[in-house]
Amino acid sequence: MYSENLKWRKARRRVDALKGFYKHLLVYILVNVALFIIRGRVLEFFQIESNDKNFVEWIDWNILIVPLFWGIGLLFHAAKVFQYKFKFLKNWEDRQLKKFLKEE
């Protein structure tokens, strides 16, 4: 009975983590699509001509940097949810386990 309850709680946590990741992914996609759509509107709103390259580059840089850094965070979120262990982290964990087992 206790082990079944424990298994159910673990499964529930994994499902909740997956739901959280998929929500994060959906928001990432929606916000970034909106940013690219808004880019053209911003230029129209300020009535910027294409000869003001500094402003256009500033807008482009700011619109591209958001998906880049957010995407990196999303990759780490995916790695955590899907329990991907980076090799260098796995090696570190193995070394620490061996070290602690030796100490005891």
Condensed summary:
It comes from Aequorivita iocasae. The protein is an all-alpha fold.
Shape, per Cα inertia axes: elongated
**Share in helix:** over 70%
Mean pLDDT: 83
The SSE string, one letter per element, is HHH
**What is the number of strand segments?**
0
- Structural class estimated from helices and strands: mainly alpha
Domain 2TM: 9-101
Pfam family, one: 2TM
InterPro entries: 2TM_dom (IPR025698)
Protein name: 2TM domain-containing protein
Secondary-structure blueprint of this entry?
Layout: H1 2-45, H2 53-81, H3 87-103
Helix pairs in contact: 1-2
Write up what this structure looks like.
It is a single chain. The protein is mainly alpha-helical. The chain has one domain. 87% of the residues lie in helices and 0% in strands. It contains three helices and no strands. Helix 1 packs antiparallel against helix 2. The longest helix is centred in the N-terminal third of the chain and has 44 residues.
